[in-house]
């Protein structure tokens, strides 16, 4: 079974052959970001690095989309939505909110965290969880803050 990165590279070739300039540009940008992350971290390109880089790209695009919407730039909002949809197909589905909340509460209990100062313990434990690849840690951070005094 090909790795996530190999699938992305194959999709670049497919997009180029189809003369789909939007997909080609988006996927090439993601490919460059993955290569840069690998070089910066002196790591091999694997599924974990690919996922982390793609998640970061989707988050940045989502943030930019919100700013474009505030500025009344519907053209840029639409372009970002297209790119987000294109990159999101490489990301696994996130945990559903009910399961995520249960996991956070369970982790708070097992780590014994008593206050927001101990959020790091909870996040560290969640990163060791088998479902860590499905967790959006930005959203989890906000959730943990609401659960700890």
Provide key terms for this protein.
149 residues, mainly alpha, 73% helix, globular
Describe this structure in words.
This protein has 149 residues and is mostly helical. It has helices spanning 4-17, 21-41, 47-70, 74-88, 97-111, 119-127, 137-147. α5 crosses α6. It is globular and about 55 Å long. The relative contact order is 0.10.
Give the SSE map.
Elements lengths: L3 H14 L3 H21 L5 H24 L3 H15 L8 H15 L7 H9 L9 H11 L2
Helix and strand element order? HHHHHHH
What fraction of the residues are assigned to beta strands by DSSP?
Answer: under 5%
In DSSP terms (H or I, runs of 4 or more residues), the helix count works out at: 7
Ranges where pLDDT stays below 50 over 5 or more residues in a row are: none
Main sheet makeup: none
How would you summarize what this structure contains?
The protein is an all-alpha fold and 149 residues long. The chain is built from seven helices and no strands.
């Amino acid at each position: 079974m090909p790795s996530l990165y190999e699938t992305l590279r194959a999709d670049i070739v497919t997009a180029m052959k189809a003369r789909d300039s939007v997909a080609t540009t988006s996927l090439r940008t993601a490919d460059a970001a993955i290569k840069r992350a690998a070089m910066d971290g002196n790591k091999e390109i694997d599924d974990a690095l690919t996922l982390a880089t793609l998640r970061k790209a989707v988050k940045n695009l989502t943030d930019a989309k919100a700013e474009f919407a505030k500025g009344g730039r519907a053209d840029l909002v639409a372009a970002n939505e297209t790119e987000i949809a294109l990159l999101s197909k490489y990301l696994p589905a996130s945990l559903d909110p009910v399961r995520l909340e249960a996991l956070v509460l369970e982790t708070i209990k097992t780590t014994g965290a008593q206050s927001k100062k101990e959020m790091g313990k909870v996040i560290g434990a969640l990163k060791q969880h088998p479902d860590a690849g499905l967790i959006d840690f930005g959203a989890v951070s906000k959730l943990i803050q609401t659960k700890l005094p």
